[in-house]
Amino acid sequence: MPDLLIELFSEEIPARMQARACDDLKKRMTDGLVEAGLTYAGAAAFATPRRLTLALEGLLSESPTLREERKGPRVDAPEKAIEGFLRGAGVTRDALEVRDEKKGQVYFATITKPGRPAAEIVADVLDDTIRNFPWPKSMRWGAGSLRWVRPLHSILCILTDDAGEAQIVPLDVDGIKAGDSTEGHRFMAPGRFSVTSFEDYAAKLKRAHVVLNPEERAGHIWQEATNLAFARGLDVVEDKGLLQEVAGLVEWPVPLMGEIGAEFLDLPPEVLQSSMKEHQKFFSVRNPKTGRIEQFVTVANRETADQGATILAGNQKVLAARLADAKFFWENDLRIAKEGMGPWLDSLENVTFHNKLGSQAERIARIAALAREIAPVVGADPDLAEQAAQVAKADLSSEMVYEFPELQGIMGRYYAVEAGLPEDVAAACEEHYAPLGPSDAVPSRPVSVTVALADKLDTLAGFWAIDEKPTGSKDPYALRRAALGVIRLVLENSLRIGLQDKFEDALDLLRSPRYEKMRDGLFHDMWQDFQRGKEVSDEIKEFIGASAENEIQMVSKALAAGPSARESVVRKAIHDIADLWVTQRSGIEWRGEFVPMRDDLLSFFHDRLKVYLKDQGIRHDVIDACIAMEGNDDLALLVKRAQALQDVLQTEDGTNLVQGFKRANNILTQAEEKDGVEYSFGADPKFAEDDTEKALFAALQDAEKTIAAAGKDEDFARAMGAMAALRGPIDAFFEAVQINSDNEILRRNRLNMLHSIRQICLQAADLRRLDG
Amino acid sequence: MSDSTGKPRSFQEIILRLQAYWAAKGCAVMQPYDMEVGAGTFHPATTLRSLGSRAWAAAYVQPSRRPTDGRYGESPNRLQHYYQYQVLIKPSPPDLQALYLGSLEAIGIDMEMHDIRFVEDDWESPTLGAWGLGWEVWCDGMEVSQFTYFQQVGGHDCHPVSGELTYGLERLAMYVLGVDHVMDMPFNDPDAPIALSYGDVFLEAEAQFARWNFDVADTDVLLRHFEEAEAECDRILNAPELDPKTGRRIVMALPAYDQCIKASHFFNLLDARGVISVTERQAYIGRVRALAKKCADAYVLTADGGFAA
């Protein structure tokens, strides 16, 4: 059973694409081979900056011969039909077999698909894989039309048999002929060499200064880096993403440790880290005693005669230039921060947040106002929350955040401290962005929580108001993430907050600038009319005449008085008229759009909540049953109810109660439909004939009391327990009693009893929405 | 010029060595384009020559202007006027990386002592409607060149593909010569009877242009020039192909492209004057791109652009 080795050798593959390319190469090749009948024992793929490699062990040397039996026409069928069958099956007549079937003698053909040698199949599959490789971005080069991530230079493709003999798989992809050779390190071991197997290949590559396995390179980098740091009593700051990236930039990693100039050591550690990582791909090295970042590790792609001294010196120089820039930004920023960040806030007026939602400054004003509204529910000081919201995004104008956008918030916190703002405000500058991902920590300081909620609610309300909701896989403004953020902020801080109210507040705040613009425009027009001697228009009189009677009269009097009228008084009157008119008019218009928006937003939250709770093991139908209840915009309440329902459904009483409830509900619904009445009159115990009927009466009365009381206390476990306790009486009742009695009085009374069951149970949760 | 195998000693020697190297590799060594451009890519020898099927190989120095980068000559490495060295070969040869590395050796970078890396950096010019894939080339962590395989220019797919190399000459030279401030860099041989530094040549110009770019340039005039260049570009391209005077078919892609270059430069000046808002910015870039596209459309209708009557 031969082994297969493939290497696709190209110019430098972007580091971020290598891991995925390994997976794709492996999947596409193995899928294609297996589909063609070539199974294998094991597969492994590797990438370096210049090569993608796939090694398959224990491949079949040829695909198995396939036999297929095909039933043909009857022996006495017309000649044409028989010839057609022969053509279709690709066999001659003497190869046909005649069998007796029920309907007579029938021809059968056996079609044999001979196996193909592995080399032939590999060539086909590899050709197809190369031509259809799913690179995130690919290109053409030279005069050819082949696409690859960067120019593809050579293809190594060999099958090695059990005796160790290698055979080149004949293949030509746009003039690139497969061979058995490759190249080593670009600088340390240039030149081509041939290989006979994967082991031979990996060994020769290592001699040619190429470590094939990216994990081995990453492991080596990490170990060397930590050794270098350890020798000086320092720690390398862990960064898995950076490690993977750097491992994708080198074939022969040589970590080198260098110093950060003393003049830069006072920069915030995040700035040093970002600057070194983003621009230079350096690891940060921390002094555990001072907690400061004091050195760096860079990873060279070669060894040199001077043990990397020249390389390190060059890197240090570049870093110094970078950090000089960062220091310059930091010092400029500090000057503005210490003066209270005024210029930053001013300049946010010129930064568009979204062309339909205004500038960042307008957005901040909304968030600040919303934060005031939310603060009491969270237990935050409204003044502090408003202040925090006002400065939380100031750092977006700072030079440092312009240079390193990922430092937004982090810089804000530093600058707020420099501006002498309270600690809670400074913390909110950083924490109000959280939580960003599902595993990101949720802030707990009340001011941070308040601003975080206000920020996210404004974003959601805003994009709902301009109808830019997420659709399918498209969510360019990360609104799902924002909603999940709100959900986690509320639940993990056990906040009791009616979201509908807050949506309304947020939507109202979005409206006010529009409203002010309308009012000012109307005032302007009316003032001009007044100066031309015109009365207030009939349209306005008709609409708000009643509520603005005095003001309209004042305008009339002023017109009559002519130039002697006091201007300020008239201006105020006209302003008030405009204000009233716009409030009433726009209020009505806005309501029309507003209510569906608010409700739609809530159902979006419910969808996100379902996803979130499903991950916590709560069934989606349980959540549905609770969403149908009142107070469903209070997420903490909703979850409490859902948890209690989920728990009771895991008891035997609970599941049986649901069955009983559904039975009662079905019988009742059918009867109501049939009779065209609603049996909500309440049953009368004096018509109870059977003992079980009497017992159910008593049980329902008890349950109703308990559920009502427990509901008030939000003790859903008790409410659900009381509901589940009805299981026995209900089951016994159905066992003993015929609902549709011939006696109409008894029947009606029993239906009324079923209604009580429905009504009482529905107070706990909408059991009709449960599955099964 | 000193010994061409050792370390170069001046800014101009690095340029001369690059010229000699690429000439030896068969490139037509061209001169800078005689207009203000933001980068060497704007030279018609790159933008337009990358279109169509005709083979091409050129190398040249291009003075480039980026008004917003002016620092009055005070920054160690930022200039509003600087030089790029540009190489364009079509179709891109299979050994372009090796050729490029050879040019680094030619200017005195010892491959045995330095760490040269090709780090992903895809190039896109929104004003030219152009993009390509390639790398920034690092030498010991410093970006010394851009290396790009052009995929599209002026909205046209590139067939064949051109390989483009761009060296930021000041930065590269500072690195090779070990200079920390650009103005201190020897421009000519430091042992010449009249030794000149980069600052001797350009310090005053940097201050003067920075002042003009940032504060003095008349924005109304610039705006008008922009509109005029845009209109003239359109007018030229709308002229009939057949020249009534000579009776010949003459498509005027090059004169139209000059107007596109002008519009682009006026936009850069307006941008430096701070009179273009964030939203307007996109609109202006779109207008220049529209011109570049029309010029590219016209160029492929010329003989150089591969048009066969």
TrEMBL record, chain A:
- What span is annotated as the signal peptide, if there is one? none
- Catalytic activity, per the record? tRNA(Gly) + glycine + ATP = glycyl-tRNA(Gly) + AMP + diphosphate
* UniProt GO BP: arginyl-tRNA aminoacylation; glycyl-tRNA aminoacylation
Q: Does the keyword Ubl conjugation apply?
A: no
Which Pfam family, any one of them, does this sequence belong to?
Answer: tRNA_synt_2f
State the top-level EC class. ligase
Q: Which InterPro entries match?
A: DALR_anticod-bd, Gly-tRNA-synth_bsu, Gly-tRNA-synth_heterodimer
Question: What EC designation does it have?
Answer: 6.1.1.14
Q: Where is the DALR anticodon binding domain?
A: 658-770
Keywords on this record?
Aminoacyl-tRNA synthetase, ATP-binding, Cytoplasm, Ligase, Nucleotide-binding, Protein biosynthesis
GO CC field: cytosol
Subcellular locations according to the entry? Cytoplasm
Task: Please name the GO terms that the record assigns under molecular function.
Answer: arginine-tRNA ligase activity; ATP binding; glycine-tRNA ligase activity
| Quaternary structure and partners | Tetramer of two alpha and two beta subunits.
What is the similarity comment for this entry?
A: Belongs to the class-II aminoacyl-tRNA synthetase family.
What is the protein's given name?
Glycine--tRNA ligase beta subunit
From TrEMBL, chain B:
Q: Which GO terms describe its cellular component?
A: cytosol
Q: Which key words are in the record?
A: Aminoacyl-tRNA synthetase, ATP-binding, Cytoplasm, Ligase, Nucleotide-binding, Protein biosynthesis
| Source organism superkingdom | Bacteria
Q: What is its EC number?
A: 6.1.1.14
What's one Pfam family the UniProt record gives for this protein? Answer: tRNA-synt_2e
Tell me the GO BP annotations in alphabetical order: glycyl-tRNA aminoacylation
Q: Which InterPro entries match?
A: aa-tRNA-synth_II/BPL/LPL (IPR045864), Gly-tRNA-synth_heterodimer (IPR006194), Gly-tRNA_ligase_asu (IPR002310)
Q: What is its main location?
A: cytoplasm
Q: Where in the cell is it found?
A: Cytoplasm
For whether the record's keyword set contains Lyase, the answer is: no
What Gene3D superfamilies does the entry give?
Answer: Bira Bifunctional Protein, Domain 2, Class II aaRS and biotin synthetases, domain 2
Q: What catalytic activity does the UniProt entry give for this protein? A: tRNA(Gly) + glycine + ATP = glycyl-tRNA(Gly) + AMP + diphosphate
A molecular-function term among this protein's GO annotations: ATP binding
The yes or no answer to whether the keyword Isomerase is present is no
Which NCBIfam families does the record match to this protein? Answer: glyQ (TIGR00388), PRK09348.1 (NF006827)
Q: How does it assemble?
A: Tetramer of two alpha and two beta subunits.
Q: Which family does it belong to?
A: Belongs to the class-II aminoacyl-tRNA synthetase family.
Q: What is this protein called?
A: Glycine--tRNA ligase alpha subunit
